Every structure is written in structure tokens, then in C-alpha cells.
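Narrative of activities, Objective 1.

The group set out to show that a structural description can be obtained from nothing but a protein's sequence at a throughput compatible with the screening campaign. Below is one input-output pair from the validation batch, recorded exactly as produced.
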Amino acid sequence: MHSIPTHIQKVAGLKKQHLIFSSAKAKVGSPISMNWNQFTYSMQMSCHKIVNSKLDAELFSPWSPREAAFGRTKECVDSTSLLAFDLDKIDTMDVDLVSSWCSPYAHFAHTTHSHGLQGKGCFRVYIPLEIPISIDEYQITHAGILETIPEIKSRIDSSSSDVARCFFMPTCPKSTESMASFAMSFSEIYASPITKPINCNTNQTNSSFAPPPTLQGNRNNLLASYSGKAYVSGLTPQEFIEDALQWGAKCQPPMDSEEVHSVVNSMWQTHTRNNPAAMPNVSRLTKYLRTAEDLRKDPPLEWTVRGVLPNNGIGAIYGAPSSGKTFLALDLAFAIATGKPWFGNPTIQRSVAYIALEGSHGIRQRMAAWEISNSITTPKNLYFVTASVSVEDDLAWRALSKEISNTLGDGAIVFIDTLNRASPTADENTSASMGRIIEAAKYMASLINGFVMFVHHAGKDSQKGLRGHSSLLAALDTVIKVSSATNQRVWSIEKSKDSEIGICNAFELKTVELGSEDIWGITHTSCTVSQGILKPQSKPIKGKHQQQVINVLTAMLLDDSSEAITQTDLEIKVAKDLDIDDPKRAKERAKSAVSSLIDSGHLLVTNGVITPS
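Output recorded for this entry:
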């Protein structure tokens, strides 16, 4: 354990509390009082202890400790009176040269354990402050002083600004003992604290407490500090995340969206748990409680396509391969862009962006087919995106969203064909990946003050709905299912927060010749959508097992105590009622009978609930 020599105790100057640890493995630090001169003297006395490993080094922290401080983290300290700068593997081994870079500040520079034999030097520099600063001011002050030391800034190891870092006392291995050295200045010029953001980057965010973007190695810690200031200023995570994402995008390398969200959410949870007294100012928060009179004053729901597509929100058109979902989505886009009724439903004309990620050639042919079929040209308020874009590329996605907002204005409708192509590396079956996709769609919908509609695939079992994690269905305002299982193409409203569900409409795909030929003389064709006539059930109920399913379902529906019946509920009940001794075989027969009735259209599955057609 270090102790300050008695003759050093007499040195004049303002003494400040610091922590000192007995070793790198020590958890509890001992507070000591010393001024800058005492600090530099103690560093001289310890330069350089010969150790085999950094873990054998004694530890010193320039932080001022909290009462009963435990563990070497920022949670155990209140303030600091020193700044530390690390330079790793730079093209000099001359500590006096490094020392000269720090002029005119008082400083102590020394080689570190990693000082190498291959012409690369590793150094640490300490610079005292005029007055102690709080832990939350460290990142900003560190970055600000760094701006005034260009030679250090160009060689800095960005992790040295980590507020939770505890600094080893000078050490070296036996192999580099001859290179152990230090240099100092007893200048009285101490660094001035910087408590406001510095203008060291022209791409600063607009936040009044945003630190400068940083390099890899320190991004998470700096963002955590940034988040903490946002928290105590009264912001919610939702209010803060846009600023945080912009800040993260300007770091080198940029922080991805998932990492930014993780740091921000973790910081809010930590603050809420550990600092209940620092809860955001209630006066800044939205009013939660509303009276019936408040609700009556809300504007009525507005529709772009009456009963099908509201003005705002996110949704999906989905179906199995070759069901015609893309043709149907494009037909809906044309109807909105022209303001013409869609399957008899009144439509308000709005600007539309169709993000066609399956390629420009196919969309061009479908557009040509629509123009021929409708005898009009594509309206000018219908735009297409054919370049590759991913919701996982946060910068590109936000740039696209802003371009749509700026070009199309408020109230635009955006189609994304397909969800899978818009998130090529995401795992649709995980809540984390699907959560990012949903959030990206909501961001775009909010920015354009309109609606975002995914074109999506059905799962392996089409009766179980949308492919991917269940959080997608929960988040969507409108879901249109497209199927062709009953010898006709049908689209139906599977989910709507504000209109009737289960409405079915038949449609047909009509082939249109485009009037051009390929190099083999074959005429190019495509298809357009036309309204069809919903056909009655073409297959009668057959077999005792199918009839048993209908009987069981009818009985369950007539039971007043019965809740919503799922497909699984029905299969379990039918299996018990079948006259089959083998439970496994009974279960298989029940499942087969229920599935057959769904495929034939006698049973409908809506939001997981099964009903007779």
C-alpha cells in the first residue's frame, strides 16, 4: 500500500481526496489526501516497479471517492481533479517528446507496461485540473482539453476517456526495465474544466448535453454518460433515442442501432433503480390520465381506403408464394395514388412510395401491365425505390425516410416489398430482430405522418399466419391475408384495430400482353388485379372425422362458458371425442380433419381464433 512520505505532507497546495488500491485485484480502495505536487512525487517514487504482469501492479485512481466506495467503477466516485490520456503503440519511445506535446499544462507522463521493443511506445499522461469536476463532466472536459493538445489528440487511445477506468501505477516488465522513464512539468497552468459541449465536430447533434462523437473503445461509456444527463434533464427514452442514434452514427466506426438502443435502455433502467430521487421532472411528461370528455375531443379515425387502410400506422399484406400478394399490393398502391375505389371501398388520393426490393425489371413490367389495363399512365405521385435498402442500416433507412417525407409530404403511404428483403440479415423469429424491424417501420410512419405497409410471407404453416416472431402481428394496425387455397384468390382483413375483420374479397390475376418481344420472339406479359366473385364452398364436408370436427366446434360455440377457440383447442377436443384408442393416432386424425376443413374454406382462422365459414 502506498503512503505519502512525511516530508511531502508539508508541500503547499490544495489537497484533494483520491483512492488507492493495494493491487489490480483489490476491490476496496483506501482514500488518501494529496495535492498535485504530492501526486507527482508519489508517481516518481513508484516509477517503475518491476512486475511480471499488470495484475501485479498497484493501482491508483484520480477519482475522489464516495463514502464506503467499493469496486473500481464510476459508481464509487463523485469527482476527479485529474485527467488521464493514454497513447498506445505510437511511433516514438521518447517520453520527453511526449511531455513536450503537453505544454503549457502541468503534467506527468510515463511509459507503461506495454512499452515495446519494436520501436513502439506506450505512454500515460496526467494533467491536473484547476478545480475538481463531477464524474458526469469528465467526458466533456477530457474531450475539450484534448482539442488543445493536437499531438496527443492525433495519437490518443480513445478508451482512456472511460470514466470508470482505474489507472495502474507505473510498472514495467524486466525486459523493458531499461526503457522505463517519466517526465513532468511543474507549471502552474492547470486545465480548466469544460462543462458545456465543445465544438470539436461540425456534425454535433442538437442536444444541449451531447458529447463529441468518439472512437471505438469508448463509445458505449460516452453514450451512457450522455444518456444519464438526458435522464436527469427529464427526457424519456423515446424523446432521447433520436438524438442518441444520430450521435452514434457519427462515431468512428458508427454504432449500430441495436447497440445504441441497448445502452440507452440499460442506462434508464439503472438510473430508475438506483436513483429514484432523480426521476424525470413530472412537469415534462405527457399527461396520462384522460377523462371521457378528453376522449370525445379526439379527432375521428380517418381512412385512406375505407375499412381497409387507415391514414396512419403500420400493416402487412401477406400470403404464401404465388398467392398474388405482390400484385395485390401494387394494385392497392395504384388505387391510392389515383384515388380510385379499391374493391368498392372509397379511397382518398395520396402520394405513394413503393419500395420494390425484388428488382426493377419485374416492377417495370407490372407497371406497364397496369397502364395498359387501365388505359392511363402511372400517376406522378407514385414513386418507386429499386435500390437496395435495409432497415438494419440505420443511416440509410433514416435518409430514405426523410427523402420520402421531403418529396411526398405528410400523409404518404409506403409499401415495402418484401419485409424479408428489407431486413436480409435479421432473424425474423427473434423478438430482438423483429423489434428493430417494427421500430424502423414506426419511425418511417411517424416521420411521414402516414402508413407503412409490408409485403410479407406466410409461415410454413399458412394457417398460423405471418412468418416470424409473434410480436409482428401484435404491432400491426392492419393485416391483409392473401390466399388461393379454395381454387380462387381471396384477400381478407385478418386484423384491423378499427374496422370489421373477416371481410373477404375474391380477385383474379389477368394476363396482359405488353406489346414487346424478347430476343427469342416471345411476347412479354405480366398480370393485373381485377375483382372476382366470391365462390361458394366447392368441397362438401366428407367423412365422419370432418363431421365430428363440425359437431365438436358447434358444441363448443354453444357453450356460454367457452372462450375464443383456437385451432389447437379444437384439435385437442376432437381427438378426445374420436373413437380411436391410440391417443397419438387420434391426435393425428383430428389435426388432419381440422386442417382439411380450413383448406376447403369451411373453417376460418382469424387472429388465431377458429370459426365456421
